[in-house]
């Protein structure tokens, strides 16, 4: 809905107020009138106005005092003085106090209309400038926080990979009845918990969409909300889906995480129970105009998630997508949930907005671009350990991870060569290219990153098979390497079952294909 400017007319003559209101009826504005200074101040204190048409001489509080009030309260309101007692001195004083214009009674209708239009146009430009500046500050803040979060995620995932690798190796050689076996399983669960926290960080910084596919959003929302509904009977879930909803191209796992974060946020706002309303619809960019963003032209799918909870005030709404901002008590929230939701939707080329009032619930609106691709059928995932006899080159700049993954691969039956960095990897491959069947390559490494290493290796052998591994990537690194012909990607930390399934899928002698293995990798983190 387009913004409608609001004008306040202040004059002690009711007939003058009525006349001005009629004269300005062509301005497409919301017009209010009052006949005294105190009444004008009461209006200004209660509501925001774009423009005030102000008489100087009033029976109680004069126009100059009203302008003093506007300046003291720092109201973003333009003022046009309209007076029958005009003088150079009063005009200068009014302009010094910040008046936009000064008109002497009597005046021509065209003159008034033109000056009001100019004032409103200037106000509109200032409003748009302020919106752009706020968006720029927000983007800069998100980028800075993204760099911090990404660094933490990279180091933390590498640490978890070392723990997971050692646990997997010990579980391979331990009797299931051994008392330590259960303890190792518990460590594995803690690694998974830590991985979920890292996933929130990665979601916030805009983790790459290296596994996107056409998806039925109705089905995704239904399945995720059903799973969430089983955790709390006090929340009543209502679904209102459009049957012919267009497909969207998304990373299913990331969107599921965003949805669950929104469900949890809604449940926290309804501590005594309530209603969670989920709606989908087909829409276009035209219905999104006038919001907080300028959408790309095209067709969109709209998902609204509404609750009947406590709601929030304007100041809270302005900060809810900031990382580490939370209204929950210490220990009850990280402040990453809604920040990661924002980044996931933005990373998919979508838009998210929120509307809320204290005591009246909250509604999140998510817009995702429609895909023209056909939704594929379900795929099966591999969960068993697949042995192999291939010779693999393992490349990682973290020595601990290099060693534990080498042990895991050798346990599977592989012959493993290692390289601690990009330059060493190229030399090892040159010397052993005829015996190496596949390269497992870390993406983020100092000196020579995974992308450059892959390109150099492909120059040596255009048919080389390379599986990318990383604890964190952004900026399209993985996606770009995959587009250049790389075999696939697996996210750290991963279990031995996931890694073996990936290798078998890419070596071409297993029913586990690359897509299903990739989906399994995410679903088990």
Entry summary:
The protein has 525 residues and is an alpha/beta fold.
Describe the structure.
The structure is a single chain. Helix content is 46%, strand content 18%. The chain has 16 helices and 17 strands. The chain has helices at residues 14-23, 37-46, 63-72, 88-96, 109-172, 179-205, 217-229, 252-268, 314-317, 337-347, 399-412, 422-432, 450-460, 477-483, 496-507, 514-523; strands at 6-10, 30-34, 51-54, 78-83, 101-104, 213-215, 235-240, 248-250, 274-284, 299-307, 351-356, 362-369, 391-395, 415-419, 438-442, 466-470, 488-491. It is elongated and about 100 Å long. The two termini are 42 Å apart.
Largest sheet data: 5 strands, parallel
| Whole-number mean pLDDT | 82
Helical element count? 16
Count every beta strand, where a strand is a DSSP E run of 2 or more residues: 17
Descriptive tags:
525 residues; alpha/beta
Please outline the helices and strands.
Layout: E1 6-10, H1 14-23, E2 30-34, H2 37-46, E3 51-54, H3 63-72, E4 78-83, H4 88-96, E5 101-104, H5 109-172, H6 179-205, E6 213-215, H7 217-229, E7 235-240, E8 248-250, H8 252-268, E9 274-284, E10 299-307, H9 314-317, H10 337-347, E11 351-356, E12 362-369, E13 391-395, H11 399-412, E14 415-419, H12 422-432, E15 438-442, H13 450-460, E16 466-470, H14 477-483, E17 488-491, H15 496-507, H16 514-523
Parallel strand pairs: 1-2, 1-3, 3-4, 4-5, 7-9, 13-14, 13-15, 15-16, 16-17
Antiparallel strand pairs: 6-8, 9-10, 10-12, 11-12
Helix pairs in contact: 2-3, 5-6, 5-11, 6-10, 7-8, 8-10, 12-13, 15-16
